[in-house]
């Protein structure tokens, strides 16, 4: 998941239920990327495999053998699936690195433990982007995929929207965060930063209401922390691309209390072409989805807006693969707030879809 101030930090709700089957845990490093593999005791060649793609993190992820495995994986382990996950060779928006590192890990697993009969991709937040990338670029490997609160619209569109909102924040609340292009190298998205944004918004409720209207997420209570996190993401992408991949020069803002004043007063920026090209490359989904993908989202996600996934639905429709995509939702507030039971139900629906060909229903998770 994206690393956020605790003001908006998501919580995976732990449900009490049957324990996962005993599993062997293997950890190590593969060409610079930490990895973890949890393998049921009775797993053998021809079993099932889940390749998990973790979300955005501002620090490198290191897996320890004695670390408690998230209960979100209990349903898969109970059903006999091995679960492997790479920490990636880089933190941040590591689509380029995460895709290569995870594929390397999958091949390592197959070489060591034997080829599985069925392989599923599963990712959370940015990991949803990686899940889509895996299915679109490596369809012969995977039977299907599960995207949880996934950022599955074009990455540049999502982050351009975030950038534009941060620029609007500067118009309404000047001086709270400092420069946007470039974001200062020492910027951190901590609680103190989020509190500064919250204080500024409380002091000008009318401007805060306009900003919320522009952003358009289902949960607006956490917007100060979201703005703080957005700013960190912009900084990281500016550093990653050695330029500024974002701009609002040609954007006409709408939805505020006074659109004319906002459009006249907001500072305008243009993206650096090479930086923007990298952002589009990693990743703009093609919609060429040859295997089933089930997406599950929180309706009031403040960070990856739930309605954004419809962009991917349109992409697969244009590409002629609409039958391979289903979007479901749960009525939760927060980013990636699911119970293990909900994740297990989604995974079971995906597996049944790949076996029977019967497409799950769209809409609220049954």
TrEMBL record:
UniProt keyword list: Signal
InterPro entries: AB_hydrolase_fold
Secretion signal span: 1-20
Name of the protein in its database record: Pimeloyl-ACP methyl ester carboxylesterase
Organism the protein comes from: Dokdonella fugitiva
